[in-house]
Design brief:
The chain is an alpha/beta fold and 279 residues long. It has 9 helices and 15 strands. The protein has helices at 2-31, 69-81, 95-101, 159-165, 169-172, 184-193, 203-212, 238-253, 256-263, and strands at residues 35-40, 43-44, 48-50, 58-59, 65-67, 84-89, 106-107, 121-122, 127-136, 151-155, 177-181, 198-202, 217-219, 225-229, 232-233.
């Protein structure tokens, strides 16, 4: 009887041990999938923005869904590399702190390369861009010199602000006031209301706003600067940045990039601005 009891107990222990081992293996397999946490500005269409209806989007930890050209690109890159995608809407002026703490893996949202070359590990440059000025359609402002004595607004910690405080400082010094605001949606509300005379922003933002409101806004022909977009990682993460570059090239070869540009064409996206050359 004792032998039978011992045998049963031993068999139970073996089954329990096997179950633990199998569970451990399953857990290890699941946790081994690399995660890409994309930090983005949730008010930066068409690259990243809040879904306000029941449309498709990427669920974030705040309970909202987001979509946009860059988020779709990130999703396609993750699928190709076998990574798990997590989208994380951020305060744009907190992006460096979030990247440094590891709360986000990268900054991927119409992120300008020029002027930041030494601060991040970058993917390849994938989209041409400009910094431009948008005014009301009925404005008497027709060229940059007409901004003298005018109120101009731009986003905090933006590429446009960098340009106006750098290469175009002599122009900005002639403004009545250069204001900053948390996001471009509110900047254009200020422009529409007449609280400011002009918005300095990325070409993509201008194209989006003008496409949505062709009778309200106009873009000046002269630009403030030309530049490029890239994906920014912490300086010690060049390996992952390079994997993103390789995946973007493959997606372009497969026609996926052009497909996404066409998806957002009515929001000002143009495949002609894609600049990452295929191998």
């Amino acid at each position: 009887m004792k032998k039978k009891i011992f045998a049963v107990a031993a068999a139970c222990l073996m089954l329990a041990f096997s179950a633990v081992m199998l569970a451990g293996c399953g857990s290890s397999s699941s946790s081994s999938k690399e995660k890409l946490v994309v930090g983005f500005d949730a008010a930066y269409p068409p690259y990243g923005y809040l879904v306000t209806d029941d449309g498709d989007g990427y669920q974030a930890s705040d309970g909202n869904k987001y979509t946009g050209f860059d988020l779709d690109l990130a999703s396609a890159v993750c699928e190709k590399n076998g990574w798990e995608l997590e989208v994380s809407p951020i305060d744009w002026d907190s992006k460096d702190a979030l990247l440094g703490s590891g709360d986000i893996t990268c900054i991927w949202n119409g992120f300008t390369y020029e002027g930041r070359e030494d601060n991040y590990a970058f993917s390849g440059l994938y989209m041409q861009n400009k910094q431009v000025v948008v005014v009301r359609a009925d404005s008497d402002i027709k060229k940059l010199s007409d901004l003298k004595g005018k109120n101009v607004i731009t986003q905090k910690d933006s590429a446009a602000l960098d340009v106006l405080e750098g290469d175009q400082k002599s122009l900005a010094d002639k403004f009545k006031k250069l204001e900053t605001i948390s996001d471009y949606n509110n900047a254009f509300m200020q422009l529409e209301s007449g609280a400011v005379d002009a918005v300095a922003c990325d070409l993509s933002i201008a194209a989006y706003q003008i496409a949505a409101n062709p009778d309200k806004y106009a873009q000046l022909d002269e630009s403030l600067s030309s530049e490029h977009y890239a994906v920014g990682f912490a300086k010690d993460n060049q390996e992952m940045a390079d994997k993103v570059t390789d995946a973007l090239k493959e997606l372009d070869k497969e026609g996926k990039v052009k497909e996404l540009c066409e998806k957002y064409a009515d929001q000002g996206m143009d495949y002609a601005n894609w600049c990452l050359e295929q191998d």
